[in-house]
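SECTION: protein entry
WANTED: fold as C-alpha cells:
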Amino acid sequence: MPLPLENVDTDQIIPARFLKATDKKGFGENLFRDWRYDKDGNPVKDFVLNDPRYGGCILVAGKNFGSGSSREHAAWAIAGYGFRVVISSFFADIHKNNELNNFVLPVVVSEEFLAELFDSIAANPKTEVTVDLPNQTVTNNSTGRSEFFEINGYKKHCLINGLDDIDFLLENKDKIEQWEQQNR
C-alpha cells in the first residue's frame, strides 16, 4: 500500500486524542484517522487506506516516517491495522524501534529503490513486494530488483521466532542462570 508522503509524524499516524487507552486493542481502526475520515466520520474516498485497489500487509511510506513524538501507540496502530512491514528510505529511530517491538519490520531502502516501488505501484496497484527477513532483502517483483536491508541481529532473531523481549529472556533462562552461578 503506497503512502508517498514525507515526514509523516506519529500524530498523523495516530492522533493524540486516541492515546488514552493503555492496551493495544482498537488502535488499527484509527490509523491515519484524520486522513482516512472527514470531520463527520465518513471515509475520505481518495485516501489510500480507503482505496479498494490496494491491500496487503506492507506499507510503502515516504522518507522520514514516524517522526515527532515517541508514542508507541503509533506502532500499535500500524500493527493493529495489519501491516507487518513498513518500507521507507528513513525512519525516526524511536519509531523504528517501537515498530520492531510490536512485530512490524521497518525496512530501510535507498531513495532510488523507494521511488521505483512507488512508480511500480502507481503503474499497477497489485504490485507485489517480497521481503525476505532471513536474507535481509526486499524485492520489487515488478522489476525483479532487490536491495539488502540492515537489521539488528537480536531483533531479527526475535521477529523470525515470534519473540518479544520477555519471551527471549525466558527462552534463555537456563543460560542466564548458568552465567549467574558462574559469576557470583
Remarks:
- The radius of gyration is 18 Å.
- The CA atoms of residues 5 and 62 lie 5 Å apart.
